[in-house]
Structures are given as C-alpha cells and as structure tokens.
Amino acid sequence: MTKQENMFTKIPTSLTDCYIIEPQVFWDSRGFFMETYSATEFQKIGITTHFVQDNHSKSKKWVLRGLHFQTRKPQAKLVRVTAGSVYDVVVDLRQDSPTYGNWEGFYLSAENKKQLFVPRGFAHGFLTLEDDTEFLYKCDDIYDPGYEWGIIWDDATLQIDWSQYFDEYDFTALEVSTKDQKNPTFQDYLDNPVF
Length: 195
What we know:
Structural class: mainly beta
CATH topology: Jelly Rolls
Shape: globular
Number of strands: 14
Radius of gyration: 17 Å
CATH architecture: Sandwich
CATH superfamily: Jelly Rolls
Number of helices: 3
CATH class: Mainly Beta
Largest sheet: 6 strands, antiparallel
C-alpha cells in the first residue's frame, strides 16, 4: 500500500457545503483496505466537523427512511453504505444558503464506496435498492428525539424523483414507517423555518 498525499477526495455537489467524499481504496489479491474517516485527513480537504455519534441501520429492499433532521440540535452527517446500495437524498433547509429549498440525490453503494458529507441544516433520507442494505452514518451531535422533525418523502413542492435509478418501479412496493408517513410538508417547514 502506497499512501498518497490525500487519502480522501472532496467532490462538490449542486448543493452548497454538501460533498461527495471518495476514499482511496487499496486492492490486492486478498481484498481491499481503506480509511473511512480520519480527522487529520478530513482537515486537509477542508472538513473540520467533530463527530460524536455513529449509527448503523440494516434494511430490506424498497425501505424509505426520511426525510429527517433535528430542529434545535442539528446534525452534520457523514454517510456511507457497507452492504447493498441506496438512493440518498438531501434537501437544503438553510434560509441564507444559495441552494435553499433545493434537493439532490446520490447513488451510494458498498461497491462504489462513496461517502456523502451532509452539513447541518439539511433534511436527509434514503431509499434502499437491495435487500440487506447496511447504512452507516457519523453525526456531530447526539440524537435527541425531542428535536426530531421531518418532511414528507413525496412532498408536492420538492418533487423529489425517487425513481431515477430504476427501470421498472412500483411506488406501492415502498415501505415507509408510520412516523415518516405523518411527516409535515415542505410548506409547513417554510411557515416555521428553523435554519
């Protein structure tokens, strides 16, 4: 293994302060090795977020989680997939951002090993594209259910295209938690913005 100058590459997205992070992956006949996070290496690419909590979920195919955020204890997140694949979606909720109210989706998989850095002030959700998909995310503040909020996944204003990675898709196949089915609309957020 030969270490390069930077172990991670930061790739801008269409949303301000939101980045794809590509790690260096070292392959040989045994398999692969990669660093998934290093405070020192992240500082080199301009991300100085201090993470304090790791979360890990496993879902079957067509499970949709989100769109989630915390109102008074917002969390920046570094997300990745270790098994399977997801369509990961974020929405910029920050009123002072040039991309306020915009969304973007990303294909993250165990195979491509891409990570997504989601800054504070974003709503986040994902749709699993394979059975036994495992999703990991680092957060820079502790989860607090008292401050949890969300936006409905099929919001009419945002018009998120959840189907763009699918040839044949039936939205009745989606599994969304009862809690997420009751999430407010984006207009509800606009009436009482928190970021």
